[in-house]
Amino acid sequence: TIALRFPEGSLEAANIGASVAINGTCLTIVSIEAESNLLTFDVIGETLDKTNLGELEEGHKANFERAARIGDEIGGHNVSGHVHTIGRVRQVETSENNVRYNIEVPQEWIKYVLPKGYIAVDGISLTVGEVEENTFNLYLIPETLRVTTLGKKAEGTSVNIEIDSQTQTIVDTIEKYMKANNLVAQ
């Protein structure tokens, strides 16, 4: 079980059983202490193994997003809150207009990360820059850094990775077709 304190006014109409994404991980509210802006979530071993939630300590900040409702504006790409793996920030490079993050993911997941595709990193839907071996680049604008926790991520820290489900479906389908037909990619 984890308990998290939320910013004033962000728990309006929150209900037990509702979904909230914490660092991109979909969790279910199990208790609410409205007067202290505190929500409690049950977290199982599988969630702790596949995400960075086990690294949260008192005083840490996390990204959060309430579940979308019919009629809400979707201001980015669709993400589910089903984290696939943990990545690591390998390099942070600041320039005049943005910050470049180089993220490493386990080798088996990089095939789903495509240049100009999208990926969710700690629940933030972002466009992928370059992809090499088992790393990819993200270019973050000042507003993204201001309203998320990514600006606080240093080299070596972990991030939750959710790949685009459509990309995963297409890649897996093509691989299965090629294998079934004894085809080799060139």
Textual characterization of the structure:
There is one protein chain. With 186 residues, the chain is an alpha+beta fold. Helices cover 17% and strands 33% of the residues. The chain contains four helices and twelve strands; from the N terminus they run ββββαβββαββββαβα. The longest helix is centred in the C-terminal third of the chain and has 16 residues, at 165-180. The protein is globular and about 60 Å long. The mean pLDDT is 93.
Keywords:
single chain; five-stranded antiparallel sheet; seven-stranded antiparallel sheet; globular; 12 strands; 186 residues; alpha+beta
Write the layout of secondary structure elements.
Elements: E1 2-5, E2 19-22, E3 25-33, E4 38-41, H1 45-50, E5 64-66, E6 85-94, E7 99-104, H2 107-110, E8 118-121, E9 124-127, E10 131-132, E11 135-140, H3 142-147, E12 158-163, H4 165-180
Antiparallel strand pairs: 1-4, 2-3, 2-5, 3-4, 6-7, 6-12, 7-11, 8-9, 8-12, 10-11
